[in-house]
Amino acid sequence: MDTPTPTDLGLLQGAMLLVKASPPTWHSAILSNIIIFVLGMPIIVPGLSLSGIGAAFLLGVLTWRAFGPSGFLLVATYFVIGTAATKVKMAQKEAQGVAEKRKGRRGPGSVIGSSAAGCVFAFLRINGVGGDAFSQLWDLGFVASFCTKLSDTVASEIGKAYGKTTYLITTFKVVPRGTEGAVSVEGTFAGLLASILLAFVGCIMGQINRPEAAICVVASQIANFGESLIGATVQEKEGFRWLNNDAVNIINISMGSILAVLLQQVVLQSWLA
Predict the structure, then answer these.
(1) What is the band of 178 on the pLDDT scale with cuts at 50, 70, 90?
(2) What average pLDDT does this structure show over 225-250?
(3) Crossing angle, helix 50-87 and helix 185-204, to 10 degrees?
(4) Closest Cα partner for 222 from 147, 143, 114?
(5) Angstrom distance (rounded) from CA 231 to CA 155
(6) How far is CA 147 from CA 49, 209, 264, in A?
(7) How far apart are CA 60 and CA 35, in angstroms?
(8) For 42-90, what is each residue's pLDDT tens digit?
(9) Counting C-beta atoms within 10 Å of the first and last residue's C-beta, which end of the chain has fewer, N or C?
(10) Can you tell me the distance from the alpha carbon of 197 to that of 157, in angstroms, rounded to the nearest whole number?
(11) CA-based max dimension of the chain
(12) Who contacts 55 (Cβ-Cβ below 8 Å, separation ≥6)?
């Protein structure tokens, strides 16, 4: 085996310094994501289509540039748990006609729909909108958006796999698994646990504090209730054909993140006053 030359070692050292750059730069974000995506391809491919991988790479770069490794880890945790939940009892879901397309491999529409609100907060963070006084709010909104989406994904997928009885949110009428706007006890509980777990990750990574983690959980559950109402009443119905699953995802995570920011300003500030 050839011995690394001083030039090779210098390039490697330079690359490692670039990856560790603090605050993150666009160059460090791109290089870090190239390394992670290459090494993590066995995990990424089962969860994303080829075009979905491209969209996820752009999301990863933006996340790393805005929030550094901690933000990237949060999104990676969301992806791993969400993909695992989607794969649970896939054969059963396919037989019942409620499985995600392509055996759960998400495309660019799903990636964009799931991360739109998070991307907005990332751009706000990168451009320093509001200065240091608002940077924590942008972190909170970012974490809340993914807590909301993960809770929704896990609740839906676990409900389709294990839900014994599924109720329409507006009438509590028993409906088949996978019905838009339907909920189950098993799925709702699993979604709540997923939200708590991701909020905990955001907390231990220093993006949010403990009261804000609780806010993320509360906001995610309220937003998911609203998403179920939309699914039961207007999603893809006459006059709302444009309101497909990706559009509802954007509305859902936007509700969760905005509500978290409002709760932080109203509830926490009033307690601290």
Answers:
(1) confident
(2) 84
(3) 120
(4) 147
(5) 14
(6) 23, 15, 15
(7) 12
(8) 999 999 999 999 999 999 999 999 999 999 999 999 999 999 999 999 9
(9) N
(10) 17
(11) 71
(12) 107, 108, 111, 112
CA dihedral 240, 241, 243, 246 (to 10 degrees): 180
* pLDDT over 50 at 6, yes or no: no
Between CA 231 and CA 168 the distance in angstroms is 10
* Cα gap 76→185, rounded to integer Å: 27
Amino acid at 126: I
HEC states along 191-259?
HHHHHHHHHHHHHHCCCCCHHHHHHHHHHHHHHHHHHHHHHHHCCCCCCCCCCCHHHHHHHHHHHHHHH
- Give the type of residue at 8: D
For residues 6 and 13, is the Cβ–Cβ distance under 8 A? no
CA angle 55, 157, 44 (to 5 degrees): 35
Which H helix or E strand runs over 64? helix 50-87
For the chain, give the percent of residues with pLDDT over 90: 65
DSSP 237: S
According to DSSP, the β-strands at 182-183 and 167-168 are antiparallel
Identity at 21, one-letter amino acid code: A
Contacts of residue 67, defined as CB under 8 A and 6 or more positions apart, other chains included, come to 74, 122, 125, 139, 142, 207
- Quick one: tokens of 245? 């699953």
What is the reported pTM? 0.89
CB atoms within 10 A of CB 177: 21
What are the two backbone dihedrals, phi and then psi, of residue 48, each rounded to the nearest 5 degrees?
-140, 145
